[in-house]
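[Meeting: bench + compute handoff]

Bench side (C.D.) handed over the final construct sequence. Compute side (W.E.) agreed to return the predicted structure before the next meeting so the bench team could plan truncations. Sequence as handed over:
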Amino acid sequence: MERLADSPDWAEYLAWWRRDREIVDNQERDKLNHEMPDDACRHVLAALPNRYRISEGWLRPARPEVSEPTYSAVEIFDRYGGSIMEDAEESGSSPLPSQ
């Protein structure tokens, strides 16, 4: 998230991230529900090493022992949005949206 410092347009989001615990504790819904600009999301996601695999209609974090094609966080974001990655990281998998 520190990559948000690369653009002055994203300074507000970086400030929110730096006080994320306080924002969550106070349930500041305007910030918690705010959609960041796609270009800011892509910029941050491009620095992540996270890889994902698609298997039988599910998105899952990639594992080295599974020899399936993998996709970067940016590729998944561009295909399905960011929420699906959050769900896959938290739960181990997330159903892909119907085509």
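W.E. noted at the follow-up: The mean pLDDT is 93. C.D. will use this when planning the next construct.
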